[in-house]
């Protein structure tokens, strides 16, 4: 039926410009064929019957005839070699046209991503320099900072590839869901309307089954991309256990510990101090010890560092390139029994030791200038990645909850004056540990992604091959052109019908048709000019569904952001320095997960974000196509179609102009990348402090507060943009059809003389005016429509049908 309709349109086009075409230009068409085409051009009621023409319309018609004569003299309306816009579909072309061009670009993109994914997987599997251990391959092993940087860059690349793949898939899905004229006519005959030009699911009930099947495969193949693609590459980080041993240079050089100074501390467990020093014997080292690295080189096992270097090196909860540390002090560290002594923080800053007595406890209760400090008195101090924070030993108070490095009462601003354990620090001896952080590649996830990628490429190819003749109404221009060529009788007499009228009353007219007067009065409307806002274009259901996704993200994001900020720096600069997707020790979930379980958990927000993007995309598209629709009431211009003929304009975008679509697409990619850095899979190998062998694995998910906050900011920008543009007003006059096929069709019943309207610049307006007054049988009813003829603005209060 679609091809027959296209051929009929071609005949009508030639009838409109018959004088301009000679026999040489149309050798394939006989006069009989011209007449046959002209006779089949209209199947609906006309509004330009001679007895119903108003004087104003007769004046417009004369002007239109003059325009047609000028067109005949100036030359052909259609390009040479194209007798009709619809004859283009059956012709074989080297490159596809219309929506097929975008589908071909989408296919090329899908194939490129598929080849890239397959090539990387084979490369990692087959490359002997990479270690493939079952389902996981190691792409890089070594410096942990390099692994982190590579991971961030690879995730950016993955988000670019997934965005490109999903954009192409969404484009083809929108084309598949776009109806052709046959499907629209069938739906209208059942008093059902379809969406034109916007992503939707409603149309799937009324389109051909083969396109529905392809659509569902494209939809289902997006699931593994959203849930898995971001985790095909992940990191296996390293965290070292270590001990902290305060000592003196004599002891580190092999001599006995100097106990002379302890004699002055008879009241501070001097005997226990001597016993404690003897317990240090197993920790003696040889300063000249070396360690052999995996690349065959030999380096000193211990390195001298200044106080400032030492403080900075152990600034992170997880350390990978250093291990055990010896604090070489000028005076010995004095051990105090925590059962008899307590460390107090003074209100004015600083600390002091106080012996615990009944009197001192009473004094503490009466004096608010003291605050007890939870002192960790274990020596040597064992630092474990499993216990946060692992570097409390850097604080003067040695509080088990750690301290703020910016607190000068704990740590001096001049790090060279840092005195751990209350004694002057000469230097540090720090164990050098070879890093073995890994950038790993999951073959299972990669195979699932490749299969999904292959399904998408195959579906797009099938769409081009099997559905290449699908004359889809991809844009509203496609629909307007079709309805102008062959008006739909089911929407006849409803020229002021809006989207809302169709949704509320079209089914009502089904039984009202039994009463002709009721149906006629319902269809005839008095023109009331109103400047509606863009917010009126999408339905209430679409607004609710769209902003529900934003509300869900916001409701879930607020407590997550609050939890993520707990134990984080309050200073914005220092908070920013915590980074994107980095592990601080206090930003891990308190339970372990398997590899695949952690991957699914980390990528679950991606599904919500994808739904939010699609919902807002549909919302924006509805408003933009409604703006395009309304623009035809204020200026005359050619239709924007996918396969232009005559003066029609070619379109490179569907519903949202590129100046908006490109920033939105980039914002979507940023959105998903920020989400991947907000909640991420964490794999950490913990090494034992004595042998440096892996003794434990931490497998869970981590979170970063800065990306979480930025994700919510980007989501708010997207949501606020929708609210902002919804306040823009449409020009008054033209009924608001939005994407409703029946409302679009109702505005496309041109005068019968206007046979070439679809290929000429058109405008919406009144071609005849009704009388001002109550309706009666003798009253003339006006008519508004899209036409290439001159139009006037409808008159307020007049009846139009």
Automatic annotation (TrEMBL):
All copies of domain DUF6536, residue ranges: 99-245
Keywords of the record: Membrane, Transmembrane, Transmembrane helix
Spans traversing the lipid bilayer: 101-126, 154-173, 212-229, 547-565, 611-632, 660-680, 701-725
Highest taxon in the source lineage: Eukaryota
Pfam family, one: DUF6536
Protein name: DUF6536 domain-containing protein
The organism's taxonomic lineage, starting at the top: Eukaryota, Fungi, Dikarya, Ascomycota, Pezizomycotina
């Amino acid at each position: 039926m679609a091809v027959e309709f296209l051929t009929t349109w071609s005949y009508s086009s030639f009838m409109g410009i018959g004088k301009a075409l000679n026999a040489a230009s149309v050798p394939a068409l006989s006069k009989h064929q011209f007449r046959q085409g002209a006779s089949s051009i209209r199947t609906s009621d006309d509004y330009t019957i001679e007895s119903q023409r108003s004087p104003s319309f007769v004046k417009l018609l004369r002007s239109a005839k003059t325009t047609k004569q000028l067109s005949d003299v100036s030359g052909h309306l259609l390009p040479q070699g194209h007798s009709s816009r619809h004859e283009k579909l059956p012709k074989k072309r080297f490159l596809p046209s219309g929506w097929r061009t975008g589908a071909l670009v989408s296919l090329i993109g899908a194939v490129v991503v598929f080849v890239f994914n397959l090539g990387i997987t084979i490369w990692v599997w087959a490359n002997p320099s990479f270690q493939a251990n079952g389902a996981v391959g190691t792409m890089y092993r070594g410096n942990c900072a390099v692994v982190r940087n590579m991971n961030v860059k690879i995730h950016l690349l993955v988000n670019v590839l997934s965005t490109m793949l999903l954009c192409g898939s969404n484009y083809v899905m929108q084309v598949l869901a776009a109806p052709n004229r046959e499907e629209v006519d069938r739906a209208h005959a059942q008093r059902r309307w379809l969406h034109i030009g916007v992503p939707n699911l409603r149309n799937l009930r009324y389109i051909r089954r083969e396109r529905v099947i392809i659509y569902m495969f494209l939809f289902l193949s997006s699931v593994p991309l959203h849930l898995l693609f971001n985790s095909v590459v992940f990191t296996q980080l390293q965290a070292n256990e270590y001990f902290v041993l305060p000592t003196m240079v004599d002891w580190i050089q092999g001599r006995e510990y100097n106990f002379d100074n302890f004699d002055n501390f008879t009241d501070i467990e001097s005997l226990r101090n001597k016993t404690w020093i003897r317990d240090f014997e197993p920790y003696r080292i040889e300063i000249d010890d070396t360690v052999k690295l995996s690349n065959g080189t030999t380096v000193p096992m211990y390195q001298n560092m200044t106080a400032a270097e030492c403080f900075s090196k152990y600034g992170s909860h997880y350390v990978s390139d250093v291990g055990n540390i010896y604090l070489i002090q000028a005076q010995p560290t004095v051990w105090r029994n925590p059962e008899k002594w307590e460390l107090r923080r003074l209100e004015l800053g600083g600390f002091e030791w106080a012996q615990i007595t009944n009197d001192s406890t009473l004094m503490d209760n009466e004096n608010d200038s003291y605050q007890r400090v939870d002192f960790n008195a274990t020596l040597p101090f064992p630092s474990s990645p499993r216990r946060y924070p692992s570097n409390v030993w850097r604080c003067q108070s040695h509080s088990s909850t750690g301290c703020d490095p910016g607190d000068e009462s704990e740590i001096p601003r001049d790090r060279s004056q840092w005195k751990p354990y209350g004694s002057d620090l000469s230097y540090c001896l720090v164990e050098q540990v070879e890093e073995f952080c890994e950038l790993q590649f999951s073959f299972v996830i990669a195979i699932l992604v490749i299969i999904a990628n292959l399904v998408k490429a195959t579906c797009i190819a099938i769409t081009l091959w099997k559905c290449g003749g699908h004359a889809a109404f991809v844009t509203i221009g496609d629909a307007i052109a079709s309805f102008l060529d062959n008006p739909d009788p089911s929407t006849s007499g409803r020229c002021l019908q809006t989207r809302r009228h169709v949704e509320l009353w079209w089914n009502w007219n089904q039984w009202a048709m039994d009463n002709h007067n009721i149906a006629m009065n319902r269809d005839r409307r008095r023109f009331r000019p109103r400047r509606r806002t863009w917010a009126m274009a999408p339905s209430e259901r679409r607004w609710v569904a769209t902003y529900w996704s934003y509300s869900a993200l916001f409701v879930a994001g607020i407590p997550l952001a609050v939890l993520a900020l707990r134990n984080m720096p309050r200073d914005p600069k220092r908070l920013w320095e915590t980074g994107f997707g980095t592990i601080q020790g206090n930003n891990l979930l308190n339970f372990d997960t398997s590899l695949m379980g952690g991957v699914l958990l980390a990528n679950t927000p991606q599904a919500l974000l994808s739904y939010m993007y699609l919902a807002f995309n549909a919302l924006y598209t509805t408003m933009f196509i409604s703006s395009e629709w309304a623009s035809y009431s204020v200026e005359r211009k050619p239709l924007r179609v996918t396969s232009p003929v005559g003066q029609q304009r070619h379109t490179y975008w569907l519903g949202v102009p590129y100046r908006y679509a490109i920033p939105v697409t980039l914002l979507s990619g940023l959105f998903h990348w920020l989400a991947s850095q907000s909640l991420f899979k964490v794999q950490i190998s913990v090494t034992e402090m004595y042998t440096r062998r892996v003794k434990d694995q931490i497998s869970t998910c981590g979170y970063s507060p800065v990306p979480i906050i930025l994700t919510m900011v980007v989501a708010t920008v997207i949501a606020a943009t929708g609210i902002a543009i919804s306040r823009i007003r449409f020009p008054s006059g033209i009924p608001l059809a939005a994407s409703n096929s029946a409302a679009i069709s109702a505005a496309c019943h041109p005068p019968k003389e206007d046979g070439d309207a679809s290929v000429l610049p058109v405008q919406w307006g009144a071609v005849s005016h009704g009388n001002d007054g109550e309706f009666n049988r003798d009253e003339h009813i006006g008519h508004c429509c899209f036409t290439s003829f001159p139009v006037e603005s409808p008159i307020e209060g007049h009846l139009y049908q």
